[in-house]
Amino acid sequence: MKKLFTTLSNIWKIQDLRERILFTLLCLLVYRIGSFIVLPGVDANVLHNQKATQGLLGLLNMFAGGSFSRASIFALGVMPYISASIVVQLLGIAVPTFQKMQKEGESGRKKLNQITRYLTVIITVLQGAAYVRSQITPEAKMMAEPIFTISSMLILTAGTMFVMWLGEKITDKGIGNGISLIIMVGIIAQLPAGMIQEFASRMEGNGGLIPFIVELAALFFVVIFTILIVQGVRKIPVQYAKKIVGNKQYGGVRQYIPLKVNAAGVMPIIFAQAIMFIPATVGQFFPGAQGSTLLATLSNYTSWQYSLTFAILIILFTFFYTAITVNPVQMSDDMKKNGGFIPGVKPGKTTGDYIDSVISKITLPGSIFLAIIAILPSFASKLGVNSQFAHFYGGTSLLILVGVVLDTLQQIESHLLMRHYDGLMKTGRVRGRTPVAADAAGSGI
Predict the structure, then answer these.
(1) Domain of residue 303, CATH code
(2) What pTM was estimated for this model as a whole?
């Protein structure tokens, strides 16, 4: 406890770090206040009596911190921006023009960011129109059409762009990744309600206090397991040739290539979830197909058929996304240009093949562990945990929470160590995600 207070005191002593943390908290407070401001022309009391969102809409509501179900001005949150970022990232893999912009450095990054913003506006307008039509019932509308739809679309678009601007300001002048922090705050905001609901359910005769304590203990161990997966690294030793220039010696040191066990981040879960929502979407567009047993089974996330299919898709997408984001050939070429080599492995193609084999070996258990984390909420629901609280036992939300917290702590520790203070831990270092994993997870979260 003394170490904790000493660390907090050191953080407060550093003016730059103190200002960054306070600025981040202020921006997050503005976001949370905005999430409770209802769209003009909407009767909040009628919305409160509506049935809670389920399935994909429930996931979006969690990421938006409950704004989606409240018809807030921030109802769409940053999800349109996340969708636009994923599209631009995929275009950077498949389209040569975008690949060229990725290699142009800062100027290319600015062009891609601008394209992402324009695409965000387009996606927000389309999603805003669909949101007003499907989520706001006629009973909740207090304005005439089409004025209500047009005004709501404009306000939702402005709200999403404002949230995106807040995220960028947090990244520039605050601490941590702004967009990821906003998503994390939205997810955490749903945790107290889920815990209270689960506690009330247990105390009303559904097992009592002991099962609730067991659930909290199980949640703790699931979080620890998730941290191990996110932090898991396979280090490949790299030796650099010794060079003598004048009276100085360069190189001759041994470093490591950290290959993440889960290099794909949350992207496999996001892609797999998009596919698993297809049966439910088909059922909405074709009411006659809702009687199909297969369709009903694949639309129920607690069924074993859904969990098995979901897990297989995650494993396949993990291999796919790792293959397109981690390039062993490029790593081998860069290593050769800098005079580096792996002891016992010939430079060039042999090194690339060796790195590729190591990636393949660690990706298999990584994908299996990721699939286990993804389907844990369904097991929690089967064991009697309410659906709102069960979402925190795994899936995208838990991975985002763990990844964002680790990244933020790593940045705080960097500020402390840079000014010769002790870090957050007495032994070791708080390790954030590597650039590859951070890009993958950042695009999903």
Answers:
(1) 1.10.3370.10
(2) 0.75
